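Collaborator request, handled under Task 6.
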Amino acid sequence: MNEESVLTLLEQVRHGELSTAAALDKLKLLPVQELPDARLDHHRRLRTGLPEAIFGEAKTVDQLIPILRAMLAQKDVVLATRISSEKAEAVCSEVAGLTYHAQARILSGNEACSKPCGEGLVTLVTAGTSDIPVAEEARVTLALFGHETRTVYDAGVAGMHRILSQTALLQASRVVIVVAGMEGALPSVVAGLTPAPVIAVPASVGYGAGKGGYAALLGMINSCAPGLAVVNIDNGFGAACMAAAINRSAPKRSEAGF
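Structure tokens returned to the collaborator:
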């Protein structure tokens, strides 16, 4: 249930095309749909501007199947994160209409319900190739939410010229998401190159003390660069949601060639 569907329903009642009783039946599941293992919040987009999303990492195939079927029936974008390829194959064999994005580990559906949202450009940057899966989780999420994206992958501080050559793109962006492991220095550099808010995502990539993303997380939290905020380790989805919230209120982009 989204704002457009509620307005359509009210217009149908207003013009006598739908009885109030029939409209009430359609609205009965508005707040919550109860399933054996989940309570689906179909009201979420109306409240927050973002649809309900499913965190699939710890859910079983038997739990995911009824959840995704119920979500697909709502005629809104369907998104399930942290889905392994084996789990995706099993779910897709039982539920039609789903697409698996392997690198992002996302199952999506009802993509036709995605509509352009926000006038700004969200640019995704990674320090290394190993950080791309986290950035792809963010990119696919943003695409499903209707936001335009560009990517700059493998542009870490070990070769500073790689990110400096992208300064014009960073300047034209409304939001920048930067994913980095190891010491996590790249978001600080990027925040010094753009007026856009920078969302830093520590990645669980690195040796020794950096393993698990904790060194990157602490480095990002201690950044001296203004205009930078940090989400949890490997949380590409959370970064995408924050970028979407910022971009929904973006002014129209000026002609910058991007």
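The cover message to the collaborator said: "DSSP finds eleven helices and eleven strands in the chain. The longest strand covers residues 121-126. Please let us know whether this matches your experimental observations."
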